Amino acid sequence: MTVAVLGAGKIGEALLSGLLDAGHDAGDLLFTERHPERAAELTDRYGVAGVEVAEAAKRADVLVVAVKPQDIEPLLDELAGLIGPGSLVVSMCAGLPTSLFERRLPAGTPVIRVMPNTPMLVGAAMSAVSPGKHATDEQLQTVERLLSSVGKVVVLPESQQDAVTALSGSGPAYFFYLVEAMIDAGILLGLPRAVAQQLIVQAAVGAGTMLEEGGEHPVMLRENVTSPGGTTINGIRELEKHGVRAALLDAIESARDRSVELGKAHEE
Ligand SMILES: NC(=O)C1=CN([C@@H]2O[C@H](COP(=O)(O)OP(=O)(O)OC[C@H]3O[C@@H](n4cnc5c(N)ncnc54)[C@H](OP(=O)(O)O)[C@@H]3O)[C@@H](O)[C@H]2O)C=CC1
Ligand SMILES: O=C(O)[C@@H]1CCC=N1
């Protein structure tokens, strides 16, 4: 099976790299890029061929659309004249509904909407998958299998994709932001930056592993760190005083709203 990534930016590269690490053959992967120097860099790094969209449409069984939602219109115009009956289109674009692709591509084109995240680069993606109206169960399974090689996969109704985009699509950015702020706190307390970074990154990895493997609720895990009359509760009081929980709710709601807005921009 040949997979072509249309738009090999951050997420497109993460997919190529994750698939190669998972054992996919470079010869079964293609990508398109509009900057020749970026294409050359990717071919050097991964041994994957950069091609024109027409060649990708001709050779690939699965076309993964990974351009910014703002760049979708010209690509759809181009693809509309190129897509053959055997092509399966997978969109990773935030906010864009499968109905947009179905309306603009040849009648009956199977489309599957996916929201992955950048940990795909290290085989630890969370991908949520929603089939459009022409995608068969077999095509859904193909996409699930492909994405399972680079992380975890859930199948969800498309109506939940804007929420998923805000939660797990953007989620890594919020964790990185917290880590960055906590490293700054280490600097404030006089630790060398490298030491602060090592301490916080390992605390994040340890917490993530406990969340994933321990099976305990996050509230319980936090309570276990919070000794009576100890240090952690002082920190928690400050987080509550500064409304960090409400800030996260607002942040994720706002990201969801932006996903809805990106989709609306392409309504008929
Ligand atoms: N980054 C993330 O964590 C995630 C992103 N996504 C989705 O993935 C998509 C890409 O996001 P991201 O990787 O961050 O964005 P990037 O801008 O890094 O990647 C998109 C790439 O596609 C190129 N491009 C645009 N139009 C074309 C075209 N017609 N043919 C070939 N290449 C083209 C862009 O070139 P140029 O540099 O000139 O713009 C760019 O290199 C978005 O729709 C986003 O919603 C989904 C989940 C997570
Ligand atoms: O910021 C964005 O729009 C993309 C979608 C989810 C993560 N990154």
From TrEMBL:
Subcellular location: Cytoplasm
Keyword field: Amino-acid biosynthesis, Cytoplasm, NADP, Oxidoreductase, Proline biosynthesis
Keyword Membrane: no
PROSITE patterns: P5CR
Domain Pyrroline-5-carboxylate reductase catalytic N-terminal: 2-95
One protein family per Pfam: F420_oxidored
Sequence ranges assigned to domain Pyrroline-5-carboxylate reductase dimerisation in this UniProt record: 158-262
The name this protein goes by in its record: Pyrroline-5-carboxylate reductase
Organism: Prauserella isguenensis
